[in-house]
Write a structure and sequence with these properties.
Layout: H1 3-11, E1 25-28, H2 32-38, H3 43-47, H4 49-57, E2 61-64, E3 69-72, E4 77-80, H5 85-102, E5 109-110, H6 119-127, E6 132-133, E7 186-187, E8 192-193, H7 196-210, H8 214-221, E9 225-226, H9 233-248
Helix pairs in contact: 5-6, 7-8
Length: 253
């Protein structure tokens, strides 16, 4: 609660073409894991409601970031449930209802935990009135032929375009074709680099992590590197340092 106001104060010197400072979309965890740990899907909203509403008054948006974390009581482990679609849809319905009870009309923007989707989950978001989903990582897939017993970080956006599209009801990863119906929400893919060098490095890292060299061949055919500042802070530190230095300079009189 201290860092966010400091960040907003730090960047208020930046202005767009209309002279307005940056605004943010805050993606809030409202899901089964939060309910299991804190006893309430909307624990974050209920405990920080006034703070979140203050952010809204500055122009920020309150979005949603639900994970499909599920607890295995026998092993006392959390895992990503990427198989039980009925459970996924029920969890999204319950969590969204809890969100709306505390802060009605929000959660129009969504990014899924682990960037995971399937046709049914994206269709559920559409039915719940979500306007834009930006879970897509075009050109990247971490799906495995034989997932581990307690998987995490599974998703498939390999065939997805890098441009904004309305997803096909038949395949969430692309726009509708021919007579296929489209969802109402918009899919806004994350920014990725198509650098062959960085794509190769990314492919090697993923193939080693997943112990599946077939992923390296896919990366060679479609080089992709996800531009993730927080995931690779050392790579982006010089850029952020330059920005910070610029913001620290006193304004010319």
């Amino acid at each position: 609660l201290e860092g966010i106001p400091r960040l907003k104060k730090r960047v208020e010197q930046l202005k767009d073409a209309d002279g307005k400072p940056p605004v943010f979309t805050w993606l809030l965890r409202v899901d089964e894991q939060v309910r299991r740990i804190h006893g309430d899907y909307a624990w974050v909203l209920n405990n920080h409601r006034s703070f979140l509403e203050d952010l809204e008054r500055t122009g920020d948006e309150l979005g949603w970031h639900p994970h499909f974390w599920r607890h295995d009581d026998a092993s006392a482990r959390w895992y990503q449930d990427a198989k039980d679609i009925a459970w996924q849809l029920d969890m999204l319905t319950r969590a969204h209802a809890a969100y709306m009870e505390v802060l009605p009309g929000r959660a129009k923007s969504v990014r899924m935990g682990w960037d995971y989707h399937n046709n049914d989950t994206l269709g559920k978001l559409d039915a719940l009135g979500v306007a834009v989903d930006f879970s897509a990582l075009p050109g990247i897939s971490t799906m495995r032929k034989t997932p581990p017993q307690f998987p995490e970080n599974l998703f498939d956006w390999y065939m997805t375009p890098r441009s904004v599209y309305r997803p096909s009801a038949a395949d969430y990863r692309r726009a509708a074709r021919g007579v296929e119906s489209s969802l109402h929400l918009i899919e806004a893919p994350n920014t990725v680099s198509t650098s062959s060098l960085w794509g190769l490095i990314s492919g090697l890292q993923l193939a080693r992590k997943m112990k599946d060299m077939s992923h390296l061949a896919r990366w060679a055919a479609k080089p992709t590197y996800w531009i993730n500042i927080t995931g690779k802070p050392k790579l982006f530190a010089p850029i952020l340092g330059t920005l910070s230095a610029g913001l620290s300079k006193p304004k010319a009189s």
